[in-house]
Amino acid sequence: MDPKTYNLAIVGYGGMGSYHVQLIEPIERLTVAGVFDIVDYRKELAAAKGLQTYDSLEAVLSDDKVDIVLIATPNDVHKTIAIQALRAGKHVVCEKPVTVSSSELLEIMETAKETNRVFMVHQNRRWDEDFLIIQDLIAQKKIGEVFRVESRVQGANGIPGDWRQLKAYGGGMLLDWGVHLLDQLLLLTGSRIDSVAAELSFILGTEVDDGFTSHIRFKDGLTAVIEVGTTNFVKLPRWYVKGTEGTTVIRDWDLSGETVAINPDVAKVEPTPIQAGQGLTKTMAPPSEESTLRSPIEKAQSTKASFYDNLVSVIEGAAEPLVKNEEVLRVLRLIETIFEAAEKRAVLKDLEL
Ligand code: NAD
């Protein structure tokens, strides 16, 4: 007998909901059963692509052929839809940020346990090539012990003019992009967090943050700067990582960048003073070409399953989820800590994180 193909219904057919159709297409064991959106025009777009449409969420949930519900609505309604879908016996995939608070996620996790259904969050940027490269770099100690990670995304286009500008929908850049960068950061070290300081920005005058900078110190000594900006006409590198034996920069999504590391075969060369502005400096002279190795960014060696292949294996009890709900919960708790640190303008310490 052929292995089962699972039917997935999409709830919320906007930018991301429609993108999931492309993500699912190459997955052998998955098919899109249909689409529900509260806006008729969005359903018409889905129908024009040959997709079945549903008249209501109830119609999705009472359709026995639907095995999985994908939630790609604005963030404020993720929790309610997830709990209804789990109670209707469906497995659930939810877009990020999973919910707008950790207590909401705990409710979902409880319901998933009670109903014995899979609930998985689409933290897709765990599969981003730039992140996988940094993960390899740290794990393989290519620049020695890493003691500083700076991870940034910066744009010049403000917050897209929709629900992302509104608090009631779970808008704001900390929830929108912060959730990706913080999720990645927590996968780079096994250490607990020691302290958090943060600043939110409101340059655009929206009621939600249009960006933020957070400083996170881990108990093992690693420090991180995580930053999101939407008013950056010139951006800083996507990744800047310092280790005891070198520095790596990945400038952009195209993976431009380099690693400059100590050449173990050459004794350290005394720096030659350089003219810098109106003075001379040895301290700020570049590392000598003889005693360092300069290499381009190499592709990551990751062989992990795709998000959706993993989902099928998790549903069948054949694999552990590549995105664990406890990990997602920790990220939400960190986001809550960042909001608190920014509001209090304080360095928050002695954290249970
Ligand atoms: P969007 O505004 O383009 O689409 C949201 C859609 O949901 C709209 O068509 C809207 O009519 C519909 N909708 C709203 N409330 C609904 C409800 N109660 N039931 C059914 N449909 C409803 O937004 P988007 O950019 O597609 O974002 C959707 C979700 O996907 C958000 O949670 C967002 O954070 C996430 N997202 C994730 C990524 C990623 O890389 N993982 C990228 C973009 C968006």
From TrEMBL:
Belongs to the Gfo/Idh/MocA family. Residues 134-247 form the GFO/IDH/MocA-like oxidoreductase domain. Keywords: Oxidoreductase. The keyword Oxidoreductase applies. It comes from Paenibacillus stellifer. Residues 277-296 are annotated as: Disordered. One of its GO terms (molecular function) is oxidoreductase activity. This is Dehydrogenase. Pfam families: GFO_IDH_MocA, GFO_IDH_MocA_C3. Residues 7-122 form the Gfo/Idh/MocA-like oxidoreductase N-terminal domain. InterPro entries: Gfo/Idh/MocA-like_OxRdtase_N, Gfo/Idh/MocA_oxidoreduct, GFO_IDH_MocA-like_dom, NAD(P)-bd_dom_sf. The keyword Aminoacyl-tRNA synthetase does not apply.
